[in-house]
Amino acid sequence: MFSPDEVIFAPTGRCNLHCAHCRVSRGAAELSVDRALGFLESCAEAGIERVGFSGGEPFLRPDFLAPVIQAAVEKGLMFDRLMTNGAWWADEGRLRNELRAVYDAGFDGVLGLSYDAYHGQDASTVAVFLKTAFEVWGRRDMAEILSVRSSDDARFLADLALVASALGGRVDSDDGEPVRLVDDAYLTRDAATPDDGSGLVIPVLRSPRSAAAGEDAWGAASWFQDDYCAGPGNVLYVHPDGSVAVCCGFANERPELIVGKVDGGVPALLAAADANAHVRACYVEGLGAYRARLEGQGARFPGKTRDMCFFCDWLCERGLTGR
């Protein structure tokens, strides 16, 4: 069932990059601090424990981040990721000041750096961002790189090695796939001594790019396996206009996955989610079981797909009958 334990705020759709795989709406809406704080109160009362930030580029809203982070700390909530492309800053002074404001507000979650062939940031820019973040936090283990695989990853992989070298480390790989950036200080640390964060370790979390509904992603030999969006999907995702989706990111601007606005509070959103047929298909029945039931009723699909997010998006576009 849909039972969110995290709220993700996307305070703006603005971004300094224009990535080919991005589906975020770049409308004029900006989420106000007051609306976010009111909703955060409702989240805390409803037992939601974690807070994350996405976008757009959330660091383009420094006026938003610090007060919402501070309020989350005051309510005893935990932090997940603050997503960023790490390249929004025009000068190192601004970079340091805005990172410091987030740190001083109490953010002790993970800086999630979106870095891959689609984003295409300069390696030196990424290295400066990470070095500055390490200096502000006083640790070299408080970031992750979240990276979408591309058919043309050679330049990105070469740049990733440059970033690791600039940080005094190297890329650990498994069968050619980057797993983490790490240095000797981390690898040779005394396991019996508490980790003080002085060693470099940045996990590199790689994921496939999900196809959009209009793309031909039906060539798989077998179907995806149900996971009921149990990983990152079981969240309340707040858009800049105050609308709330039940999807972690890929199709969360689809109206079928929007369950209301922040102003009504969490109980009303959960009631709307419970009454939403598409949400029930994702979180209760499971999209795989739902697909099998549709086939039993005579529905025919163009092929098979291993990409559950693509299938969800396709159902949003075509309707839950799949026709």
Summarize the helix and strand pattern as letters: EHEHEHEHEHEEHEEEEHHHH
Question: Helix tally?
Answer: 10
Largest sheet: 11 strands, mixed
Class by SSE composition: alpha/beta
What is the CATH class name?
Alpha Beta
Q: In CATH terms, what is the fold-level topology?
A: TIM Barrel
Q: Low-confidence parts lasting 5 or more residues at pLDDT below 50?
A: none
Can you characterise this structure?
This protein has ten helices and eleven strands. It is α/β, with parallel strands linked by helices and 323 residues long. Helix 2 links the parallel strand 2 and strand 3. Helix 2 runs parallel beside helix 3. The longest helix has 15 residues, at 123-137. The protein starts with 5 loop residues before the first strand and ends in a 5-residue tail after the last helix.
Summary of the model, kept short:
The chain has helices at residues 33-45, 62-74, 92-105, 123-137, 154-166, 184-187, 266-274, 277-285, 287-296, 308-318, and strands spanning 6-9, 50-53, 78-84, 110-114, 143-148, 170-174, 177-182, 201-207, 236-238, 243-245, 258-261. It is α/β, with parallel strands linked by helices.
Write the layout of secondary structure elements.
Blueprint: E1 6-9, H1 33-45, E2 50-53, H2 62-74, E3 78-84, H3 92-105, E4 110-114, H4 123-137, E5 143-148, H5 154-166, E6 170-174, E7 177-182, H6 184-187, E8 201-207, E9 236-238, E10 243-245, E11 258-261, H7 266-274, H8 277-285, H9 287-296, H10 308-318
Helix pairs in contact: 1-2, 2-3, 3-4, 4-5, 8-9
